[in-house]
Write a structure and sequence with these properties.
It is built from seven helices and 14 strands. It is α/β, with parallel strands linked by helices. A hairpin with a 3-residue loop joins strand 4 and strand 5. The protein binds fe (ii) ion (2 copies). The site of one fe (ii) ion has 7 residues, from loops. One of its GO terms (molecular function) is metal ion binding.
Length: 285
């Protein structure tokens, strides 16, 4: 079994400071095997914002795996945007744009889906996919996770949201090398489901988990939140921990089981039932 704390869209420059302190407090007693940060560390890719974001990340559990988001590329300085888009990110966060975490049970790979030529959509390229596919194919029997800033498909309530171009094609390639899980952010909406909820023809499932904005004021009708994820070979539990005014609290717990056809949602516990530990079968597919 492995645990992942999945935070996203910190947006230093548009920070909600009490929420940020609350996140540190909530993670203080926790020891995830990995902390994933799926992009948008900053609001405008400024040096000060990167410095503040890194000081913040130093106060959170390690090891950490970080990928950049579209806000981590300069927006108004066109020379920097097109000629050195990730220079500050590489100087101040990590030089590694395809970070890897691997232990005896789990392989996690991060890829940069942000591009200079678009402010919103996500892109991957052949070279990135070849790297990830080769590493995943070699990790027989491990739980396999890909991290990108942009999600591969949108939540049902925002079908027009910006996602990774060609997501269906990439997910087919990822499922062929038995990737179990993709983690992303960008939309500031917490959402998770099997890829077959969007791409019906897929033979094998990949579970997509999207995080809300952990610490920024750029909320889109949802509270700040992050995901506490527990994985084992055929089981994945996603606990959304949302800001409740004074602290982060568990707001929704969903349990998935996988078989040869993919991930199936078996239990979901909404916020008003968490305390009573009432569970109900939902959406058995
Ligand atoms: Fe964002
Ligand atoms: Fe973003």
């Amino acid at each position: 079994m492995r645990t992942i704390a999945h935070i996203s869209d910190l947006h230093f420059g548009r920070l909600d400071a009490p929420v940020a302190e609350g996140l540190i407090a909530d993670l203080a007693g926790r020891k995830p095997d990995l902390l994933v940060v799926s992009g948008d560390l900053t609001q405008r890719a400024r040096r000060r914002q990167y410095a503040d974001a890194m000081a913040f990340l130093k106060r959170l559990p390690s090891p950490q795996l970080v990928v950049p988001g579209n806000h981590d590329i300069p927006m108004f300085n066109m020379a920097a945007r097109f000629f050195t888009p990730v220079r500050k990110y590489r100087q101040m966060v990590t030089r590694d744009l395809r970070p890897v975490y691997e232990d005896e049970q789990m392989l996690v790979i991060g890829l940069n889906s942000a591009r200079s030529f678009t402010r919103i959509s996500g892109w991957l390229n052949r070279e990135q996919m070849a790297f990830a596919e080769a590493r995943f194919a070699a990790a027989k029997g491990k739980f396999k996770v890909l991290v990108t800033h942009h999600p591969f498909f949108p939540p049902p309530r925002r079908p027009d949201a910006n996602v990774i171009r060609g997501g269906e094609k990439y997910l087919a390639a990822l499922s062929a090398v038995e990737v179990d899980l993709v983690l992303s952010g960008h939309l500031h909406l917490a959402y998770h489901d099997d890829l077959r909820s969007h791409f019906k023809a897929s033979r094998r499932g990949v579970l997509s988990i999207q995080a809300g904005t952990a610490t920024s004021t750029r909320r889109r009708g949802e509270p700040n939140a992050y995901n506490w994820i527990t994985v084992s070979p055929q089981l994945c539990t996603v606990a959304v921990r949302a800001w409740a005014g004074k602290a982060f609290e568990e707001s929704l717990v969903t349990r998935y089981e996988s078989d040869e056809s993919g991930w199936h949602k078996i239990q979901q516990v909404p916020i008003d039932q968490v305390g009573a530990e009432v569970m109900s079968d939902v959406n058995k597919q």
